[in-house]
Amino acid sequence: MSIRFIKQSGGEKAEENAGVQATVARMLAEIEAGGEIVTQRYAERLDGWTGEIVVPRAVIEAAADEVPQRLKDDIRYAHDNIAGFARAQLESCRETEVELRPGLRAGQRLIPIASAGAYVPGGRYSHIASALMTVTTAKVAGVGHISAVSPPRPGKGIPAPILYALDYCGADRILALGGVQGVAAMAFGQFGLPPADILVGPGNAYVAEAKRQLFGRVGIDMFAGPTDSMVIADGDADAHLVAWDLVGQAEHGQTSPVWLVTDSAALAEAVTALIPACIAELPQPNRGAAEAAWADLGEIVLCDTREEMAEHADRVAPEHLHVQAADLPWWRGRLSAYGSLFLGARTTVAFGDKAAGTNHVLPTSGAARYTGGLSVHKFLKTVTWQEVAPEALRELAAVTARISRYEGMEGHARSADIRLEKFFPGEAFVVTP
Q1: What pLDDT is attached to residue 142?
Q2: How far apart, in whole angstroms, are the C-alpha atoms of residue 141 and residue 392?
Q3: pLDDT at 264
Q4: How far apart are the first and last CA of the chain?
Q5: Using CA atoms, how far apart are residues 401 and 413, in angstroms rounded to an integer?
Q6: For the residues 50-65, what does the mean pLDDT come to?
Q7: Residue 122 confidence class, pLDDT cut points 50, 70, 90
Q8: Would residue 252 show up in a list of annotated catalytic residues for this protein?
Q9: Is the dihedral of CA 36, 38, 44, 50 positive or negative?
Q10: Which residues are paired to 321 by β-bridges?
């Protein structure tokens, strides 16, 4: 394999706050012990919010009046795509029943989670799309109660478009809380919420760490780090499109790596030249974020063949993988490690981030090697059942007893023995190894 780095990353940055883990642990302990009063104190201190935590119905309705009709239409367009894709995913799941042997029946059920909590970021950017992605998908899955939290702006509250989107998608209760305190309120069941069975949605380092520390007590969608994106492009790709696709993802933040993998030295050179000009067109703070991400974490990798390009992509396992190369069916069949795949020059990662229908809550930091993104499957429990008829019991019980005794688990063996004795009195069975 011949891979050459035209531009190489200096290595992923650590998050700025070295004490995130300890800070989150302390906050979670204080909030659990002190309850809603402590949560409200953190809201005042960290969110600058002294208003009502549970957003009243009247405020939600007033927010809807503030949202321009064009934006409402756009939110509904995106919602319909996301809901449509989630319904297609749901239809791909099914409950099953099979007779493994005469008299031995087994099956699986799909049971929606009772309560989900969705975190919707609202710091530097107001993530309307995160409200759509999380709540819509949970609703389609049939989750019984969906709570949502989002950081309020001092003196103003949650931005009106986020409130409108959360309500339109079906959130049962919305809390004006950000950060660790928002995650904790959903996990611990504060302010009238049922305790969440699963926590979903993107957030900053504190939000991600809070979900990580709560995992086990509650489910989470995934362990999430900074967003990342890769473009695979051949010599026929449009350098201007490629450059903007990289810059568009780099604006997420200075810890967000972007990578170009190509078999064309000419394209690599052209993209390298274009990226600074593209970044310069962005407003602040986007420009500063993209400059830092590209300078420190951006990479351009030159390969000899498309197979080398695919192998490199599979090793990196990017969150977003955008192919702008010939023979798209080959790439779709060959690539195997990514959060979401974008095929062709007509698509872009931004479409998936906002409105195309596939979910934008995706595995980062190479986690696409072993998991996919948020989907209806995350909100469904696949549980199994079995039922034994007389014609299956003889052999099943005897086999279970013998295996159990091989393992030294006499109690398991006896629970099989007594069924043979009860249901087949007087018959002899071989129940020892």
Answers
A1: 98
A2: 36
A3: 97
A4: 54
A5: 4
A6: 97
A7: confident
A8: no
A9: positive
A10: 230, 341
Tokens of 158: 């949650």
CA dihedral of 85, 77, 253, 18, whole degrees rounded to 10: -60
Pairwise CA distance, residues 49 & 152, whole Å: 7
pLDDT for the residue 210:
97
The answer, yes or no, to whether residue 16 has pLDDT greater than 60, is no
Tokens at 391, concatenated:
């014609």
Single out the catalytic residue among 79, 291, 319, 322: 319
Choosing from 127, 252, 320, 322, the catalytic residue is 320
CA distance 177 to 6: 44
DSSP letter string, 144-186 = SEEEEEEPPBTTTBS-HHHHHHHHHHT-SEEEE--HHHHHHHH
What is the amino acid identity at position 160? Answer: A
Cβ atoms 245, 279 nearer than 8 A: no
Q: Tokens at residue 337, please?
A: 């490690």
Contact 71, 132 (CB under 8 A): no
Q: Tell me what the pLDDT averaged over the chain comes to.
A: 95
At residue 285 the predicted structure's pLDDT band, cuts being 50, 70 and 90, is: very high
Q: Going edge to edge, which strands form the sheet with 173-176? A: 173-176, 145-150, 115-119, 198-200, 219-220
| Alpha carbons 249 and 163: distance in angstroms, whole number | 25
DSSP element (H, E) containing 320: strand 320-324
Told to judge if 145 belongs to the known catalytic residues of this protein, a careful annotator would answer: no
Q: Which of 232, 234, 147, 141 is nearest to 185 (CA)?
A: 147
Contact 381, 95 (CB under 8 A): no
- Over residues 47-59, the mean pLDDT reads 96
